[in-house]
Amino acid sequence: ARAFSVPLQRPADCGAHRYFDSSRLACAPCGAHQRQSAGGSSCVCEPGYRMVFSNGGFSVTCEKCPENMSGVTQDGWNCISCPKGLTSEGNCKCPNNEILVERSMDGILLNEALCIRCNGSEQSFSASDASGSRCVRCEKTFIQVSKSCDCNTPNILTGGLCFLAHEGLPPKGIASVRFAQLGITLTSAWFLKNLQSSAFACWLHSNLTACQALGNMCVMNMNSLSSSSTDACGLFQYIFVSTARVGIVHSIPYWRHNLPWLYYGDQPGLASQVLEKNHFPTTFTFKGTDKDVKLQFIAASFDAAGNFLKWQSLEGGILQLCPDTQTKLNAAYDFGTTYQQSCKISVSKILLDFANPVFYDLFLEYNGGNGQQDLWAVPVLNLNLQYNEKFVNQGSNMNNWLLTRRFFLVDALSGKENDLRQPPRVIRIASKITISIRLVSRTQRGTIYPPLVTVAYTDVLIQNPETQTVMVSFTVSYEMNQSEAQIQTDIALGVLGGLAVLWSLLKTAGWKRRTGSSIIDLQTFFKFLLFYAGDLANVFFIITVGTGIYWLVFFKAQQFVSVLLPLPSQEEDFVTYVACAFSLKTLQFLHLLVSQLTVDIFFIDWERPKGKVLKAVEGEGVVKSTVAPVSIWRTYFIANEWNEIQTVRKINPLFQVLAVLFFLEVLGFSNLALMDASSSLTRSSESYVAPWSRILRFGVSAALWVAIAILQVIFFAVIYERFVEDKISQFVDLCCVSNVSISL
Amino acid sequence: ARAFSVPLQRPADCGAHRYFDSSRLACAPCGAHQRQSAGGSSCVCEPGYRMVFSNGGFSVTCEKCPENMSGVTQDGWNCISCPKGLTSEGNCKCPNNEILVERSMDGILLNEALCIRCNGSEQSFSASDASGSRCVRCEKTFIQVSKSCDCNTPNILTGGLCFLAHEGLPPKGIASVRFAQLGITLTSAWFLKNLQSSAFACWLHSNLTACQALGNMCVMNMNSLSSSSTDACGLFQYIFVSTARVGIVHSIPYWRHNLPWLYYGDQPGLASQVLEKNHFPTTFTFKGTDKDVKLQFIAASFDAAGNFLKWQSLEGGILQLCPDTQTKLNAAYDFGTTYQQSCKISVSKILLDFANPVFYDLFLEYNGGNGQQDLWAVPVLNLNLQYNEKFVNQGSNMNNWLLTRRFFLVDALSGKENDLRQPPRVIRIASKITISIRLVSRTQRGTIYPPLVTVAYTDVLIQNPETQTVMVSFTVSYEMNQSEAQIQTDIALGVLGGLAVLWSLLKTAGWKRRTGSSIIDLQTFFKFLLFYAGDLANVFFIITVGTGIYWLVFFKAQQFVSVLLPLPSQEEDFVTYVACAFSLKTLQFLHLLVSQLTVDIFFIDWERPKGKVLKAVEGEGVVKSTVAPVSIWRTYFIANEWNEIQTVRKINPLFQVLAVLFFLEVLGFSNLALMDASSSLTRSSESYVAPWSRILRFGVSAALWVAIAILQVIFFAVIYERFVEDKISQFVDLCCVSNVSISL
C-alpha cells in the first residue's frame, strides 16, 4: 500500500464476530465468546455468557454462566436463574402482563429472577409499563370506564384506550386512505390504530388532542367528503354536525368549539363570498416600514397526533421545499415581488427530512389596532379534494370550489400499511403551492382581497427512493382585474385609429394632387391602404409604448399600491398589438423603398455657354464656330451627390445599438423590468431575481430606444449639423454654386 | 371583529392560570386549583392537589390532599405522605443517593413514601439511577477500581469515572479553550467535565471512545501545540509520545494504535513531503464514467464524545454551509469544475442546525484494484493553528506548515462556560473551506498530487443571535504549475518581437526611400518606433489570441487531463500583454490617422482643350481667341470621390458587433469560457455555473471576432465586390474615364 493509503472498511462488512475499531477505521476481531454489538463499534458477550471486564467494549472478557443460573441479567454483568425461560439474547423473559424483577427494592441482586404480576385492584390500579420492568398506574381511561385495569365487553378497547359503549357513539370508521392519482386505496396502520379512538375520545370526552388527530386524519385523506362512506372525514362531519350545541369560535360559523376548523361549509357559491365579500383590513405599500411591505404569514402547526406545536412564521422557507439562501427565500413575502421557485428533490431526502408530517393552519397577521395583533384566516384550495367522487376544485369556476383550512407538506405516515416502523408504500407531497394576492379594483391605498393558497399534491409510489425524484414548485403571484386598463387601451386605439384614417386621407389627397389625376380608382385605394398601414403602425406603436411606460411608471413608482402588473395570461392583447405594429411598419417600409426606387429625377443645367468655339471640321477644311459646350461633368457631380444623400440618416445606428445596450445591461435599466416592487437599477447578487414582465421589458427598451434616438436627433440637429457638416445644406449650396437644379 | 379574523394569542401570553386551547387557538382559563402545564397546552393541579379526573388535560378536576398525606405521587393521581419533605412541585423528595419508592414491587400503592438507600456491597454493586427511582448497577469503573460503588482517595474521581492513582498518569490538564481571533481564553464546561477522565481512560484502559474524545478536544482547540502547557493537545501529545510501543496503523508513522490520527508530525519541511512526494494513485478524465470524473470524498465522522458515527460521503453538501439545490451542491465534486459558493448565514440558524459538533477525518476514495476500494488520507491546513504561539500555517512557505487531519464545521460546545444546557458564549465556524487539487506537471494522463483542504475558522462572540450573521464560503480550485507555459509564451514573444523589429526596419526603409532623404535622423528614428509599435501590437495580439485559443482547445477538448487553466493570480502576465497590445495599437492608429490627415494630394487633369474660344474682352472691344478651358468640375468630381473612399472599410461594423453578440449570447459560445470541464454550448438552468476564466473569455471573444471578420472579408472580396460594387475599382475606372490622375 502506498503512503497515507488505507483500505476502506465499513462496520457492516465486519461480520458477526468482528467489531469496527474506530481508531484504526478497520475491522478487528472480538475476543472469545463475543460478537458484534448493535452499533458495530464494540463487542458484547454471546448469549449465556456474562461480562467480567470491559473497558468501554473494546477488551471484553466473558465467562460462561453455570447450568443452574444459565440466564444473564439485563445489564449483562451477572448470571441469574430464569424460572420462565430465556429470550434469544440469553436474558430472562416474562409473560406479557408480568414484570421482570432481578434486584430487590434496595438493589440486592437476586439469585433467581421473579416474574411479578402487577396489582390492578382499586386504589393501586397498576399495570406493567412499556418496557416490562416496573408497575405503574395503568391507562386512565381504563380506570375511568371499568374501575380496573381491564377493558372487558361491553366496553370498547381501541387504540389503547377504553370507552364506555353508548348509543349515539360515532359509527365504525373505515381506516383507508385513497391516493386518487395512483388509483390506490390502502389501509393505513396509523388509521387502524387511531381513527376510532380519536373519534370516540373527541365525541365522549371532548379531548382536544384527539379531535385534532381526527381532523388531521381527514386532512391526510385530502378532506374528501362523500355522503356514503364513514372514513375519517365522514366521522369528522358526524361529530361536527352532532355538536352544534357547543357553539362556534370567534363568530366564525364554520369553526366549532373543540374541533379543528377544516371546512368553509359545503354549499356551492360559498367560495366567492369568502374570497370577495370582505377586504383584508390592512393596506400595503411598496416603500414603507416592514409592517406594510411584508406579508406576515403565520401558521399554527400541529403534529399528526394532534398536539399543538407552535405558532410558526413562514419566513425561513417553511413552505418552500427547494433549498436556497435565507435572503432569497424570504423575498417571497415582500409585497409586490412575484416569486417563482421550482426544483427536483430526491425522494430519499424527503423521507429523511419529513418523517413526521406537520399540519398547518395558515393565517395572515396584521395590526388590528389597540396594539393587538390580529390574524386573518387564509383559505386553502386543495386541488386533490373530491366531493362525492368529483374533483370540484380543479375547474376555474369559483362557485364549485370547496375551500378548506388545513394542509401539510409531506405525508409519509398514512402510506404505511402494516407496520409503523417500516417505510411507507406511498407518500403524498405538496408539489405545487401557490399563494395568490388579488388587488381590489380601483383601490387607491393598496387594499387586497384575502389571499388564497392553492395546493396540488403528488402521490408517489415508493419503489427506489435513491433514484426517484419529485418536481416541486412554490409561487407567489399578484393579480388584479385588468379589464379597466383593457377598456382604456381599446378606447385609445379606437380614437387614434380614427385620427389615423383622417391623416391617411390627407396624405392620399396630397399624393393624388401631385400625380395630377383626379379619378378615384383602385390605385388610389391601394395607396390609401398603404398610407393607412404606416399610420396605423404608428398608432399601435404609440399605444404599446404608452402602455409600457404607463405600467413602468405607475407600478414601480407608486407608494400605496393601486395597480399591479398584468399576468402573462393577461398580456396576450399587448403582444398582438406589438406584432401588428411590426408587420404594418414592415409594409410601410417596403412601400417607401419601392417609391424611392421608382422615382424619376431630372437634372437641368442652367449654365450658359461662355462664348463660341472654333472647331476644325474634318474633311471640309473649314473652321466653324459653334457654341462652347457646357461640361457634362457638372451634372454628373450633382447627380452623384444626389445619389449619395439617399441613404443619409439623422442618427448613427451603431451608436444607437451600443448606447441602448449600454444603458440596459451595464447601467442596469433592464432591472426595471422585473416583476418586483423595487425601482432600483441594481440588484445585489445575493437577492432574489423575480421573473420578467413582457410589457415592462418592451416599455423599458422602447423608452430607452426612443429617448436615445431623440437625443441623437437633437445632437445632430443642434450641434453637429450647425458646427460640423450638414449634408442636405451642402447639397443645396452645391446646386446653387453649380447652377444645376433637380426635379422629381 | 371582521369575518374570519381572530386575535393572535400565544401560549406564552396565557399566564400561569390559563392554558392554550389548541382548537380555538386562544387562551382559556384552567379550573380551580390548577395551573398551566409545562407545554402550555393543558392544565395540571397545583402543588398539594391530586388529579381526580382528566380527559387529556382539558377538563381537570383536582382535590386537596389531607394534612397527614400532603404529598402527591409522581403520576399526580394519589396523595401520599412524604417522610423526608416535599419538593416545590409538591412531590416527595429524597436525599441524593436514595431512591424514591411509592409503590411496592407488585405495584401496590404505599401510604407513606420510602427513601431507600441502594445496597452497594459486593455482588450487588447497586446505586441510584439518574432519575432517582431505581437501584441499578453502578458505574463499572467504580467497581473495577475500588470493588464498591464509592470512589475514595487515593483513587481519582473525574468526569463520573473512577481511576486508580498511578505514577506515570498524564498530568492535570488545563480545561481552557483559546479563541485567538477574539483574544478570549475561557474555561469550557465540557473540558472541565471530560478532559481529565478521557485522558486517564485513554492512557490506562486504551478506551477507544475516550481517546477519540480527547482528540476531539484537541481539535476544538485548533490543534494548537505549545511545549509549555498541558491543555488538551498537550495531554494528547503526552499519550502519543508515551505509547510508542503499541505500534502504528497501516504503516503510517503518524497514526498510533488506539489514538486518532491528528498530526502529520511536527518537523519543518514535512508538508512538502506529504503533498508532493507521492502522486494520487488514480487518474482523472473529463469525459468518462462516473468513477473517473467525480472526486469521491468520504469522511469518517465522530461526535464530540468520541463515538464513530458513520462513513459519510461529502455529496449532498455536507461541508457546504450555504443551502442550495442538490445538483448545484454536487457539482463541486465534478473533476475540473472550479466551484465557488459563498453566502451570509444567520447565527441563530447555525446554533439550531449544529448544536452538536461533528468531527471529520477526510479521505479520497479510489479503486485500489482487486475490487477493493482504497482511501487516501487528505491532509488539512488549519489556518488558526498556533505552534508555540505562532500562526505557522498562514504564510505561503510550505516548509513552515503543520498539517493536521481532523476538522469540524461548527463548534457550539466548547464555548459553553458553566452549564452545558445554556447557550455558548463563543462559537467557532469553519467559514472558509478550500479544496485545492494540483495537477502533476507534464502528466499525460490526469495524475494529481494529493488534494489539500484549507480551513479557516471564524470565532463569533454571541451577543444577539437573531441579528448576527457570518459570511461563509466553500471553494474547489484546480491548479498546475504554469511556469512551462509561461516560458513558452516568453520564447514566442521574443522570437516574434525580433521578427517585428526586422519588419519595422523594412517599412522604415521604404518610407525613407519614398521621402527621398537618406540621412538617418531623429525623425527616422521616431518613424521606426511608430512602425515598431504597430508591429509589436500585432505580435502581442497574436500571442494573446494564440494563448486563449490554446487554452480553449487543449483544456476543453482533452479527455485525459493534462492541462488545467491558470488561476486568476497566474493570469497577471496575460492581462499585461493585452493591455500592451491595446495601447500600442492605439498608438499605431493615431499614427495612421495623423499621416492620413497630413498627406498632400495632387490632381492632374490630362484633358486637352477642344479648340479655341472667341471671347469678348471688356473695355477693349476686341474679340480674342483663347484656349477653351477644361471644366474644373471634372477635377472636383474626382477629388470628391477620392475623399469619400478614405473611410471605406472592408467589413460592416454594425453587422460585426451584432454577429459577435449573437454568437456569444444567443448561441451560447460564452459558456465555453466557464472554468468547468464541459465543452457544451448550453447550460441548463438547474446546473451550477462556474466562474469565468479571463484567458478563455478573451480567447473566445477574440477568436469569434477574428473569425467573423475573416468571413466578412471573404464575403466582401469574393461575392460583394465581384457582383455588386467595388468602390476602389469604380474610382480607378472613373479616373480612366475622366483622364484625371492623382499623386500623393
Keywords:
homodimer; 744 residues; alpha+beta; six-stranded mixed sheet; five-stranded antiparallel sheet; elongated; membrane (chains A, B); transmembrane helix (chains A, B); Growth_fac_rcpt_cys_sf (chains A, B); Meckelin (chains A, B)
Topology:
Two copies of one chain form a homodimer.
Chain A: E1 5-7, E2 18-21, E3 26-29, E4 34-36, E5 43-45, E6 49-54, E7 60-64, E8 71-72, E9 79-80, E10 98-103, E11 109-117, E12 126-128, E13 135-137, H1 140-146, E14 156-158, E15 161-163, E16 176-179, E17 184-187, H2 189-205, H3 208-220, H4 232-242, E18 248-249, E19 252-256, H5 270-276, H6 290-293, E20 297-303, E21 308-313, H7 326-330, E22 339-346, H8 347-353, E23 358-367, E24 373-377, E25 380-382, E26 406-408, E27 410-411, E28 426-439, E29 452-461, E30 469-480, H9 483-515, H10 522-556, H11 572-597, E31 602-605, E32 612-616, E33 623-627, H12 633-644, H13 653-666, H14 694-723, H15 727-738, E34 740-743
Parallel strand pairs in A: 25-29, 28-30
Antiparallel strand pairs in A: 2-3, 4-5, 6-7, 8-9, 10-11, 12-13, 14-15, 16-17, 18-19, 20-21, 20-23, 22-30, 23-24, 23-26, 27-28, 28-29, 31-34, 32-33
Helix pairs in contact in A: 2-3, 2-4, 3-4, 9-10, 10-11, 10-14, 12-15, 13-14
GO cellular component, one term (chains A, B): MKS complex
Transmembrane segments (chains A, B): 529-554, 654-675, 695-720
Keywords (chains A, B): Membrane, Transmembrane, Transmembrane helix
